[in-house]
Amino acid sequence: xxxxxxLLALLTSRPxxxxxxxxxxxxSVAHVWHAPDSQIYPELNRxxxxxxxxxxxxxxxxxxTKKEYAVTEAGVKAFREWMDSPIEIRRQREPAYLKxxxxxxxxxxxxRAELEQFRDHWTExxxxxxxxxxxxxxxxxxxxxxxLEHYDASQWDRIVRYKIFAYDGLIDQARAAIxxxxxxLVLVDELEGAPVD
Amino acid sequence: xxxxxxLLALLTSRPxxxxxxxxxxxxSVAHVWHAPDSQIYPELNRxxxxxxxxxxxxxxxxxxTKKEYAVTEAGVKAFREWMDSPIEIRRQREPAYLKxxxxxxxxxxxxRAELEQFRDHWTExxxxxxxxxxxxxxxxxxxxxxxLEHYDASQWDRIVRYKIFAYDGLIDQARAAIxxxxxxLVLVDELEGAPVD
DNA sequence: TGCCACTACCTATAGACATAGGTAGTTTGT
DNA sequence: ACAAACTACCTATGTCTATAGGTAGTGGCA
Lengths: 197, 197
Hints:
Two copies of one chain form a homodimer. Chain A has helices at 2-11, 18-27, 37-49, 73-84, 95-100, 108-137, 142-148, 153-192, and strands at 16-17, 53-60, 64-71. By secondary structure, chain A is mainly alpha-helical. A three-stranded antiparallel beta sheet of chain A has the order 1-3-2. In chain A, a hairpin with a 3-residue loop joins β2 (53-60) and β3. In chain A, α2 packs across α3. Chain A is elongated and about 65 Å long. Chain A binds a DNA duplex through α2, α3 and β3. Chains A, B: Residues 7-80 form the Transcription regulator PadR N-terminal domain.
């Protein structure tokens, strides 16, 4: 159900075509809520059917058309209601920690590879989060810039700081994950003997 | 697919009935991979069908019976293979961070309630993780104790330390989440004005 | 004897999600 | 003139997951 509100969140910055949504999504909202376009297109249709969005068909080239979605008043209301309602708590479901708990079953080499892969994934993810955070701080993030246009300048700081706050949380998590993986690599060396190569 | 291996992990400690699995699960493996019993029973059946488990029917009372599942050799092999194969990377999907990024849409009271609820959930979760960690350190954790029986005493430290390592990772994440929520509450007070009550 | 909590196991249903495709038009560069 | 890359949108399939039930036997106790 969160996908619907993630899409609403994105579309409050400006009306967009489905294609724009699926592209922009991966560069902003997807950092907190990932979804592939095969989930996005049908959801946009359902949201229009439910009156949260309305679409206008825009010509594109000679024969082509595209559909631009805008949030309706009912959409804004639904988004606000969701914002004011308690969050669902997500249950822990992380294969990396599951595996870590049973590392005595793994080959030492595989255990190391595992932890390195995990660390590298989060390191990459962290770099992306920090880069995005920087574009929020200097307000060059395109979606943010479009969003701020609807607001009085006195509100800008407030809006931006909430977004930075969200990214700070994600960055903390990424850092914690990386540090944990590093400790794991040290532990594997200690328990299995350092690799000989 | 991880559920299958989470169940295998649990059942390597000792054979268990489906009911035991679903009870024990929530006190150990569920900390890293949650699943309700409505998912567990069918999965156990499928695992037996696939030759990873074998079951023996045990009488229970006068008329009742229960099914005890034990991991087969094929099950052990599958578990080892999974342990040695690269992990799937989970995509970010956390409603709390999604909401945090759009907190300018929320009522100040709702924003505070949100963050408090998030903090309280993780505080509770942290207490549980720390309590469980302590039972691993002193080896009083029942599933761990049963597991260690299959191993030579020289291996005990190795096994226990991997489990502690996994919990340490979860504890780090919980602490980071709590600290983030606290910072969020301060931020809301700063941006929306402290609550008047 | 009846009731209740618990053990034991299972089903149904709907929605979420991943993965892997497909079609058709447009723009850009050579 | 043509290919390649991109825009635009959609479908199919299978699995996963949440939620909410259901049935039947057991053990204790009042």
